[in-house]
Amino acid sequence: MKRIATALSLALLLAFSAQTAWAQTLQTVKQRGQLICGANGTLAGFGLPDPQGNWTGFDVDFCRAIAAAIFNDPSKVKFVPLTAANRFTALQSGEVDVLSRNTTWTMSRDTTLGLDFAAVTFFDGQGFMVHKSLKVSSALELNGASVCVQQGTTTELNLADYFRSHQMALKTVTFATADEAIKAYDSGRCDSYTTDSSGLYGERLRLTSPNDNIVLPEIISKEPLSPAVRQGDDSWEDLVRWTHEAMLDAEEFGVTKSNVDEQLKSANPEIRRLLGVEGQFGQSLGLTNDWAYRIIKSIGNYGESFDRNVGENSPLKIARGLNALWTKGGLQYGLPVR
Amino acid sequence: MAVIADTPVLYVRTAPAEQLLPPPASSGLIGWLRANLFSSFGNTVLTLACAALILWAVPPLLRFLFIDAVWSGSDREVCLASSAHLEPGACWAFVRVWLSYFVYGFYPIPGRWRVDVFFAALAFGIGWLAWLSAPRRDLGAVYFFIVLPVLSVVLLYGFPAIGLPTVPTNLWGGVLVTIVVATVGIVASLPIGILLALGRRSELPAVRWLAIGFIEFVRGVPLITVLFMASVMLPLFVPQRLEPDKLLRALIGVAVFASAYTAEVVRGGLAAVPRGQYEAARALALTYWPTMGLVILPQALRVTLPNIVNTFIGLFKDTTLVFVVGIFDFLRTIEAARGDPKWATPVTATTGYAFAALFYFIFCYGMSRYARSVEARLSRSDRR
What we know:
By secondary structure, chain A is α/β, with parallel strands linked by helices.
C-alpha cells in the first residue's frame, strides 16, 4: 500500500512539474531555439512536404510565422507530422508547442480536451462538386440528385440534414473511402460529390477532366479550422492569436511582403503600431516590437499566404469565400493593434 | 541342347530392335502439355481458367504500367488524358520527381550521401553474410553485428565531433526508415527469439514463466496498439526530457514483436529435435549451452528456416505500421506525395501504389528466394 502511495505521489509530482513547465511555453521555445509545430503532412495546401522534403502549406506557413515573430527566422521550426488520432495527445503531452493541423474548433474540444483554440485561420465547411453538364449553379437546385459521399462521416449526416431541411429529394451513394467515392463520381455514378470544400478543390484535380466540374458556392456546415495550444498558458495563446491577427491586419492595410519596408515610413498610425514603429506592443507579447514586421517580411500577410498555398497562385485555386476580409464580404476580421 | 542353340530360331531376335521415337502424344511440346496441363478433365478446366485469367489481367496491366505510361514530365499536365493520350497509363514521371523524397524523406539534402553510404555498407554486410562461400564470414559477422550498427548510428544520426551534424530522427523517412526498422527488427529478433524459445523450454521455473509471460503478452496485443500506446500514452506519463525518441520507440516495439513471433517459430523447431539428441549430448557430458549450441540449435534452426523467413517477410511489411507514431516510412511518403496538387491526376495514386508494390515485392521475393536456396543447400547436405 505504502509503495503504491509513493508511486502515485511521484506520478502526481511529475504531472505537476510538467504542468508548471507548460506555463512558460514561450520561454521553453526561446531556450530550445526552435518552435515545435504539429502539422498534417498529407493534406495538400495545408501541410504537405514537397519533393525536396520541405514542408509547405497554409498551416505550415502559420507556424513559420510564429517562428519568424519569435526568432526573426521562419526556418526555426521543427514539424511533427500528426495523425487525426494522436494530434491532441501530442499537444497535451508537450510534444508540440502548437497544433496547426486543420483542426475544427468545436465546443467539446475546447471545453474537455485541456486545450485552447487561438483564432480561426480558415473557415471551412462542406461543399458540393457537380458535373458542369448538369448546368446547376446552386446547391438548392440539386433536388433529386444522387450524391457520392464517404460512409459514416459527419459529411454524410450533414448532407441528409441539408436536403431534408430544404425539402429536396436525395439519393446518397455511399462508399467506404473518399477515394472510392471520388472515383464513382468521376465515372458518372452520381451527379454530385460532397466533402469539406478545402478538400473538394484538391479532389477535383484528380478527376479525368477537372475543368468539366465545378464547386458550388454553398457551404452547408461549419468547420472553423484553428491552431490550438495547451490550456493554462494564456500568454502563449495570445502570441499565437496575434500572429494571425497581425497577418490579417497587414492584408487589410495593404502591407505585403514586398512593400513592408516602405510601409515602415507610412504615416498611417495603424500601420505604424502594427509594424512596431510606435508603441510597445511586441514587448507585451514577450517579443520585440518589430514582431509583426518580421512575420510579414518572411511570410507575407494573410492573403499572400492564402493565395500562395491554397488560393489563386496554387494549383488548388480555392476561392476566398468566407475567408475574404470582412471589408470584402468575408469573415476574417483583424483585431486592432492598440 | 547344343542342337537347339546352333539352329537359328526365326522368332528370336539376334540384334536389338531399333529404338522408336515415343508416340508423339507423349513427348515434346504436346506430351509436356498433356502431362502437365491437360492430364485430366479437372486439370484441363483449371488450365483454361488460368489462361483466361492471365489473358484478362496481364495485357491491360502491361499496357497501364509500360506501354501507355508517361516516363518524364514536370507537372500533372503530362499525365492527363489528351487527344494524343486517350487512356493515360502509369504516371512514372510523378515517381521520378518524388523519388528522392520516397528514399530519404525529410533528410537534409546536403547530408543525403550519408544515407547512401549507409545503404552501401548495409548491402555489403548482407552480401558478405548471405553469400555462403564468401571468404572470412566470421569477420563478416563481426562487421555486421558490431561495426555496422555503430557506423550506422554515426552516419545517420550524426556525430558532430567528426563533422557530421546531427540529423534528428523526425527528419528520417521513406525507404531509409523502412530499411532501418526492418533491419533492426530482423537482426534483433533472431537472437532474442532464440533465447526466449530456450527460456520457454527451460527447467528453471522463473525463466520459463518469464519467457511464457513475455511471449504470450506480446502475441496477445496487436502491434499497432503497442505502437499507438508508445506514441500516445507514454508522453502523458513520462516527463518530456525522459521521453525516448519516436523512432526508437517504434524500433523497440517492432523488435519486441518480432522476437516473440520468432521465439514461437524456433520453439517449434526445438520440439522437432528428437529426444535422443538431448540424451546423446548428455551422454557426451555436454553441459547446457554446448548441448544447445552444438547439437540442438543447428538442427532446430534448419527445420525452422522457412518459418523464420516467413516471419521476417511479415515483419518487413509490418514496418508500414510505424506511420501511427508519425514516422513517414516508404508507404507513407507515397501517400503524402499522392496528395500533391501539382501531380493530382486520376492515375497518380495508382502509380504510387504500383511503385510501392514493386518495392515490397522485390524485397520480399528476394528474401524468399534466398531462403529457398539455403534450404536446397541444407537438404543436399542431408542427403549426403
